[in-house]
# Entry
Amino acid sequence: MATGDIVAEAQAHASNRPYIIFLSAHSSYYQGRVDLGLILWPLLCSEKCLAVFTRDAFTVAHLNRQGLNKAQFVGHFVMDNLNYTSKDLQLIPRVWTIALLPGSRLREATNNLILLLGLVKEIATHSTVLVQFWAALVPALMPQLDDIAAPTRWQHRAGKLIFSAIKWSFSEHKLEQVEVICSADAFGDISQQSSLIIGMTGTAVKQAVGLGKPVNAVPGNGPAFTYRFAEAPNRLLGNSVQVIGTQPANSHIIKEAALAVDHTLQDNKYLASCIKNGLERMGRSGGSIKIANYVANYL
# Structure
């Protein structure tokens, strides 16, 4: 079973054993067609290659038209490791929920979270609807919340980052402060129950799109999540992802991103399109068991 780039696929072929390929590094969405090059196509067409699973149905259609009938799409397996714990997120009813995903590489995730807290303040300042915030963090980031809060005028209390300088009042709801509730063990629940996701990461953004969520992204200073990194999935994941800015986020980009969030939450037609787009781009969950059943049936 080979997944990855041409190196993994070539190794599978060189083993002289039957093999299955998950074509994770190629998609017709990138350039409007699937470009396999001169080496990969013979590996897929080999009699030893039993099946080719792709990351989307669009790529299957192109491969089938080229005569590769063994290509099929059963869903992307990243949709199968979203663990739902049924955790009570204590969400305020009828209030938009925004999830913050600063990433998993610790030093960069710390800087990204500081950037996102600045964006939260801008959203709270300019939003025309009431919103609430949850941050899905890696466990190693939780002990750093005191250090993150101190220089940014936020306060940390038992997993909550609190900014008291902004007060909201919308119809029946009144909030005396802005809160970001942080958790390291509820990513699946937070993503599922969110109205919109602000993501500065890779795989989690793909999962969010697959869940039908709109995703806004602002480029960071890297080294991983930069404009170039953020823009590439934009082609792969379609209109579900909006990248704000073409350089590391500054005060102007942060304000632009806050306005984009407010506009997105009020665009019902766009929100509905994200649900449809997510199914087209990522498929439903269950792809892993379907591939596993294919292997078991062959054996």
Remarks:
- The radius of gyration is 21 Å.
- Residues 126 and 259 are 7 Å apart (CA to CA).
- The chain has a mean pLDDT of 90.
